[in-house]
Specification:
The complex is a heterodimer of chains A (289) and B (445). Chain A has 289 residues and is mostly helical. Helices cover 75% and strands 0% of the residues of chain A. Helix content of chain B is 45%, strand content 13%. Chain B has 18 helices and 13 strands. The longest helix of chain B has 25 residues. Classes of the chains: A mainly alpha (289), B alpha/beta (445).
Amino acid sequence: MNKDSRKWFIIFVAPALFAFIVVVLIPVIMGIIYSFTSWNGIEDKANWIGLSNYIEIIKDDKTFFSSFLFTAKFAIVSVITINVMGFVLALLVTRGLKISNGLRGIFFLPNLIGGLILGFIWQFIFTKGFDFIGAALGIDFLRGWLADPTTGFWGLVILMSWQMSGYMMVIYISGLQNIPDDIIEAAKIDGASDGQILRRIIIPLVSPAFTIGIFLTLSNSFKLYDQNLSLTAGGPYNSTEMIAMNIYNSAFKYNEFGIAQAKAVIFLIIIAAITLTQMYYSKKREVEM
Amino acid sequence: MKRRKLLALTLAMTSMLTFTMTGCGKSSEVSSNDKSEKNGKTEVNIFQFKVEVAKELENAANEYMKEKPDVKINIETVGGGEDYGAALKAKFKSGKEPTIFNVGGPQDVEDWKGKLEDLTNEPWVGKVLPGMLDGVTMDGKVYGLPFSVEGYGLIYNKRIFQAAGIDGSKIDSYAKLEEAVKTIDSKIKSGALKKDFPKLEAVFEFPAKEKWVTGLHTSNAALGQEFKSSIDSYKSKTVDFKYSEGYKKLIDLQANYSPNGKSKEKLNAVDYSTQVDQGIAIERVAIVQQGNWIYGGVKAIDEKVANNLDILPMSIQGGKEDCIPVGIPMHWAINKNQSDKSKAAAKDFLNWLYTSDKGKDFVVNKFFFIPALKGYENYKPQDSLGKAIQRYIEAGKTTPWVFMGYPTAWGENVLGANIQKYLSGKMTWDELVKDSKAQWESKRK
């Protein structure tokens, strides 16, 4: 019996392990090796230069630091907006309204459109649609969106919230539906108000869903690239350039593959640290039924 | 125990696989040799970036293959909005190296030097117009065949100028340009042009979002008088901004007389299509700073407008005021690491395309290129903008494209970004010049 299960273990795990090693582990190791070289991405040979790439990034590269700050700011704001919106939408469609199923479809739909296309659609809305409404109603605030860093930032936040909150909604729906009706009924009989039920019963019980939701949005916001590219392309004056784009630009625009790899390694460590900390604390908060 | 063995086995397998894969990459010469003679035909793989001519290039290749049945030409195009440079690197890394690909200026030649075939002894080299090989000549060797000549300037709508009572062909200095702009502006504001051009709302449209327009092209009007060629700018450790005032005036003029003249930071969201497709093509504005490549796009929207376009000089006050910058956007290059047969066929194809009668017909009448070679007396550009460029070339009123020799990404990500800061009031002109100079030097040290 034991021997048998070991055989099955090998048969099932080996293909996945093999794929993981070939497409994840080896590229990561190669990437780390390249980060110690001055490779330009074209030549066949790469010169070993030790830690100088890392030193240069930390000492001289102001753009990396500023795009990191921008990305962090964006991640914090969008994690809040996406999860709040996703949760509110989930509450809305689990109330047993007749149009619930239709609403679910509509809210989820933006998530099915590719990020690049979404970026262009919203670029049109911000620069043309907003401008037109602003001109017609005489509201100057609506004109010239994406032309300065502030509107560029909020443009990205709006775009991402619109796209991702439908996806989070699906996760929260499954969380909400796992709450047994009898608990809520009991609370009602005991005279708890809707607000109390939400705060004391629903939110603690869906906290596993929050763990997943916050993890997904956090790592997605940090890694964002295509929406950033098509909405603002980092403009104006590179002020909305997020970290993934910064890395891509060093690699392909400045032909500094070594530096780009070093940035990617730093980025990997930071993201891993942030998301693991988040997972640790959220897990601690989860309540067992 | 067993689990550990399994891990070891998997690791061994993967490392073997990696070795064999690298092995393949190393022996690409041999394998491409085999491949290039598949079915007894010599294969030539072209990886090029000009989307606009992709289809006609295919037709030209078919025409060529009729003459040379033992050659098979495959064309792949990546360009337009996509990043050709990145795609080309990926293509080379994938092991399927193309035979013919494109290189821009001196920086590209330097980067790709290990892959470039020496083309100095090709028959077309002697026919290239003076100065047009500067960007791909290194240590006395020629590495590329110029695609075509392109030029840009202040493209204007002749009908609007006529309606405002201005003869565009007389404008040959900054003072005259400014006067003409002011005249048109006052006529737009007084409503005198409203009847004929209901959509007209400003003189210029200025796409500061497109950093290549401001950082590469506008700046070249000034720096093209400071440096003699792209090699010159490529080798220079410093930049002086000798004509900084003239450059500033040209930018201010375009920004101040644009629809966002009163809130210039909004220009940072104006892009190419707002400038061209929703600008000059629908007669919403009278002048845009662009090049002869916009002809096809404007023609697709309004042929009458397209045929009434002409080009004003990029006047830099204090420097040359009646010239436009003209240069070679891209070159054809051949990959050194291919089989001799395939390289010979590639050379022959390029030579055929640019020097045979059939090839010339394709180049001028199908691709709408302005050739950089002699021997095209019977093949003149037909479109309004091509004709205008030809006129400037014949009159000798051109300045070179030196932006190909700017430090990597300096033009767009430093200067272009600084101009966006300048327009939004976050940087004064003096700071812009100082910062751009310092960054040039730090990239060239």
